[in-house]
Structures are given as C-alpha cells and as structure tokens.
Amino acid sequence: MTSKDSVPVRQAATVLLVRDDPFQVLMVERHAKAFHGSAMVFPGGVVEKADWAEDWLPYLQGGEGLDAAERAARVAACREMFEEAAVLLATVSAQDVNPALGFFEMISVSGGKLRLDALTPFAHWITPIGVPKRFDTRFYVCHAPEGHDAVCDGVETVSLEWLTPAAAVELPLSGPRMIAFPTKLNLQRLAESANAQAAIDAARMRPAYVTQPVMLQTERGPRVRIPAEAGYAVTEGLPIGH
Q: What is the pTM of this model?
C-alpha cells in the first residue's frame, strides 16, 4: 500500500491571462470527469517530458538565464494555454500556425518563437501531503495577446469566460463551477491590482515564495492552512470537496 506522503509530486504550470477595459482574467471550466471536475481554473496543466527538451532553445524568446525547470514550466504554460483556450503566446499569430501539428513542430516550422519573457511569475504552490494527486505548480501572469480569441477545446475544458477578479473570487468553493482554495487566494491577490499592468508590476516586485498548505482536522471540520509568510490575506480555507 502506498503511503499518502509518498504520492509523487508532478510539475505543473498555469497562467492568469489578464486584459483591461474592464480588468478581467480568463477562467476555464474543467470537464466533469477531470481531476477537480467542473472546477473553474486558470488554463494550465502538467509539465510534459517534451517541454524539457533542449530542442526548444532556438524557438524561445526570453529563455536565456532560466534554469531547466523554469524554462520547461513556461513552455508548458504556453502549450496548455494554446491547447485549452487556443491562445498562442508567440511571435506569430495563432492564425499562422497549423494546430494539426504537435506543439513543438507547430512552433518550429512557423518561423516564430514562444514568448517566455511575457510570462511573469505570480505564485508557486505545492499540493499538501494527504491528497491523492499532488502538484508543484508555478503560476504566471500575462497580458492577453492582441487579436487572440479564447476558445475552449471542448475536451479538457468545456467552457471559458473572462471575469473580473472580484467576480471570480465570489465563485463557490464546492459544487458546480467551484474554485479551489489556491485559485481563490490567487484571485484575491489579483484583485488587489487596478489593472493588468499593475498586477504584473506587483508580481515582479513580490518576493519568491513556495506555498505548501497543510491539511488539518479542526472543530469546524477539515481545513487547509498556509503560512502567513506566503503573503496572502487569508491563511486558512476549505479543502476541495468540502
């Protein structure tokens, strides 16, 4: 039998894609049978083996100086954003690439580069011990590229919408269209800014911190708790499914 604390931690990346007039963030709804099924999340997913490949190096803008893990996470963030929402963060337009190709081949034959320098680290969370699937997730914030209409893929994501951070924070923590505790806290952090550029500037100034919640049994039932040093306004919340 596998101990809960030996569940492997998978690398993941997700993107807070933001735009102005009004200030909004893109949220996508996972399909019902997915992990966190029917949850409203930021586009993102697991870092795949191909995201680590050094073959990417000639096709990256802003990859210089990044370590391998950071580079792979940013490639994954770009790939997942394209796969889930049809938004391409590259020096070529989404209309000028062939989505029938694999992601690397699509970029490499396009004459363009992935814009890793457009991604600003926003947060970094590790799933607590005691849950069946664990992720080491890097959150990025990014301006929505001009002229790119977000479209859900209908497979991993079944709907999407642009929401003001204040409205997104009000989504429930359980039931249909739920948001998880980390999503809620990062939406609250986003809502502290007045516009997209202010959110990106704030993220650039924020000290790097890896937030790892712990699961607790309290008099009020199960809770997750994070250290105050993580810099969020809230330090305790409901775990997923409660």
A: 0.92
